[in-house]
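Sample intake sheet
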Amino acid sequence: MVGLGNPGERYRVTRHNVGFRVVDELARRHGARLGTLECNALVGDFVRAPAGSPPPEVEQAPGGVLLAQPLTYMNRSGYAVRCLVERHGLAPSDLLVVFDEVHLPLGRLRLRRSGSPGGHRGMESILESLQSAEVPRLRLGVAGETTPEGGDELVDFVLAPFAPEEEGAVGEMVLRAADACDAWLAGGVEAAMNAFNR
């Protein structure tokens, strides 16, 4: 699972970095440590035990689920993702990419199995680097009451922090997005789409 964002404290609480926040939440709830630098991404992993089974023994780790936050800046995310895919022997369809979407209302989630990047530079970089549109993705709505149409104003908008009155909705969205990621792990993209595309 790959959360998209920009590295550095300056961008930590911006609209563009909600993908990072979801991966941070997944790491927290699964006890993974995002402490390894691999393929110019911060990575960690955890083993997801089958339903009803006891937790895996220590000697079985690491493995299972890889969490990643590319540190390449948004529009070069594909370089890190392609390196991770090749290094871990993954197919594009094994990924779930989590990122911000200015064309969705704040708090809305939208899962898709594949498709175009929809104008998102990070997703565009990933699809171009992997030479495939068959990459599952979870888009997180970050639109405000007034969202610029494009150009420098839109860039400034996504690189700005959320308004204080929006933070409650953002926190709830991050938790639901992490739930959607867990649903994707447990039942696949169709089951997660049915549960969270509302």
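Comment: Helices lie at 18-30, 77-87, 121-130, 151-158, 167-187, 189-196. Confidence is low (pLDDT under 50) at residues 53-63.
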